[in-house]
Amino acid sequence: MSRHAVALCVLLLIAAPIRARAESAEVKGTFPVAIRLDATRSTGPLHPIWRFFGADEPNYATMKDGRELIGELGRLRPGSVYFRAHNLLTSGDGTPALKWGSTGAYREDAAGRPVYDWSIVDRIFDTYLERGVRPYVQMGFMPKELSIKPEPYQHRWTPTAKYDEIYTGWAYPPKDYAKWAELVHQWAKHCVEKYGRAEVEGWYWETWNEANIGYWRGTPEEFQKLHDYAVDAVRRALPTARVGGPDAAGSGGRWSRDFLEHCLRGTNHATGRVGTPIDFVSFHAKGAPSVVDGHVRMGIAEHLRTVQDGFRLVASFPELKEKPIVIGESDPEGCAACQGPRFGYRNGTMYSSYTAASFARKHDLAERLGVNLEGALTWAFEFEDQPFFAGFRALATNGIDLPVLNVFRMFSLMGGRRLDVQSSGAVGLDAILENGVRAAPDVSALASFDGASLAILAWHYHDDDVPGPDADVTIEVAGLPAAAPVLLHHYRIDARHGNAFEAWKRMGSPPRPTPEQIAELERQSRLTLFDSPARLRPEDGMLKLQVVLPRQAVSLLRLELAADPPPLR
To answer: Which residues form a coiled coil (predicted)?
Structure first.
């Protein structure tokens, strides 16, 4: 991972109207794409939904490479990036393992009286906050001495084990709901005392993880009870705390509908009153990659259909239509710590191009269904002390950034109003929902304008990880000040830019890179310019940019205006 701030030098895309690079039209097998947008035509605010991350293993955050990566995330948008982790209340000494973590926050003395110890969880939250990241607090899992089935407790899962082997004593209901509530209350009270009311008011608090599948070994009604007691406990410590849930696996279907009905109209198990406070609604959405004819095929259609199902479920409740939605895990598939052929997309540009294309469509779905999408959380972090490029779903490996992290750096350079974009190379939203991107590739863009800079994030994506011709893309930008010059920066992720994985392979894939090789990998991992910045002058408020996008490439074209911006309409 880079040890320095993101490089802000960028690639030249020619003077206005910008001419194609000499070699562009000569690339064999290229196909043309026309992208058009207008700086004065907005579809509404571009919400920074990308600023949420998470991991099963909370203790990695306090380790060497974990601290560095948390810092990189915090620098994307200090104070507005959130991190969600499992196992924040799990019993243990804080030693991490795959799909495991612990804080030892709760134990009981010989007389059965609670003993609280916040030292490990404080260290985790301190690591976040000192680096500009805030907690998305998951209240779970069950401490050993509270579990109705404490043995076996810590699992010894490996990527070759069956997934359901992880569901041990931590996944069970409490033997005493009052003790569970008091644990949560004391934790929330401690956080307010340590970090201050104003800070903790900015956090998210939710109960458990995916309680509609094996992560919860009780009934749906027992989970509703667990949740009611947890929310009441937090609100007793901080009446203005932001609480929600249920972070179900998938949209949750009938299970989530019953949960939301309970929160809105059911009898609260903790208070006896009607309803449970709900400030945000959360569910999870995953894709389904496979191996076809020896190559990885992504499942973007399944991913986005689940997002659509979740949005529809929330929108079906009039009381929730305006509530913020956080897709609490939103990823190409469901197991970050798993390894295998179908996960071969993770280290390279398949993951980064998928991320660009899928995030744009989450915006589209939210707009179409009229819901308030606040966040889409990427369940990817890092795995400490593992081989380089080990094939986990991660943002970095041994301190070396993966290409997907650079997409989030691109997102962080966008803001303001979202602009309407028309692309002749786009695969329509309905077509993606139905069939994915299996025929023609998807070449399109997401654009924003904040009054001082206009950013265009363009991608060339296909579900199949196979070679394909480059896209020769013409981007027409209208609505700019007629004569004022603009400064163009062009950032790129492809085989040669922002891509340490390809650099590592060019080195011969050394299992233990030398210090010199590590320094080179760090350099290659950074988000950098494709070429030198260019000062351009619009003609009649119009710029024409030309860029060649290889398959799986992502470009960010950022135009910095030097004059008064045009009004939005």
So the answer is: none
Q: Read off the amino acid at residue 113.
A: R
Rg (CA), the chain: 24
Residue 553 lies in a domain: yes
CB 232 within 8 A of CB 271: yes
**Helix (H, G, I), strand (E, B), or coil: what is residue 149?**
coil
Give me the domain span that covers residue 560: 1-46+340-372+380-569
Task: Dig out the tokens for 257 from the structure.
Answer: 């509908």
In three-state secondary structure terms, 502 is helix
Residue 567, token pair as written in the block: 């009004």
The answer as to whether 180 is a domain residue is no
- The answer to whether residue 454 sits within a structural domain is yes
Q: CATH number of the domain at 425, please.
A: 2.60.40.1500
Digit-coded pLDDT (tens) for 29-43: 899 999 999 999 999
Q: Which amino acid is at 46?
A: L
Residue-wise pLDDT for 270-323, tens only, equals 999 999 999 999 999 999 999 999 999 999 999 999 999 999 999 999 999 999
> In whole angstroms, what is the distance from residue 42 CA to residue 416 CA?
10
Burial profile 61-76: b = 16 or more Cβ within 10 angstroms, e = fewer: bbbebbebbbbbbbbb
**Is 304 among the domain residues?**
no
Q: Residue 332: CB partners within 8 Å, gap ≥ 6?
A: 286, 287, 289, 298, 299, 300, 303, 345, 351, 354, 358, 393
If you average pLDDT over residues 65-91, what whole number do you get? 98
Distance in angstroms (rounded) separating the CA atoms of residues 434 and 94: 44
CA-based nearest residue to 491, from 458, 536, 454: 458
Q: Please tell me the total number of residues recorded for the chain in this structure.
A: 569
- By the 10 Å C-beta count (0-12 exposed, 13-18 middle, 19+ buried), 112 is classed as exposed
Domains: count for the chain: 1
In angstroms, the CA 185 to CA 180 distance is: 9
C-alpha closest to that of 527 among 552, 556, 488, 564? 556
| CA distance between the termini of the chain | 41
Using H for helix, E for strand and C for coil, what is the string for 241-277? CEEEEEEECCCCHHHHHHHHHHHHHCECCCCCCECCC
Orientation angle between helical segments 119-130 and 177-195, nearest 10 degrees: 40
Which among 549, 407, 552, 547 is positioned nearest to 466, based on CA atoms?
552
Q: Describe the chain by its helix, strand, coil percentages, rounded to 5.
A: 30, 25, 45
CA distances from 442 to 344, 363, 382, 437, 491 (A): 20, 16, 29, 7, 19
Angle at CA 418, nearest 5°, toward 416 and 424? Answer: 150
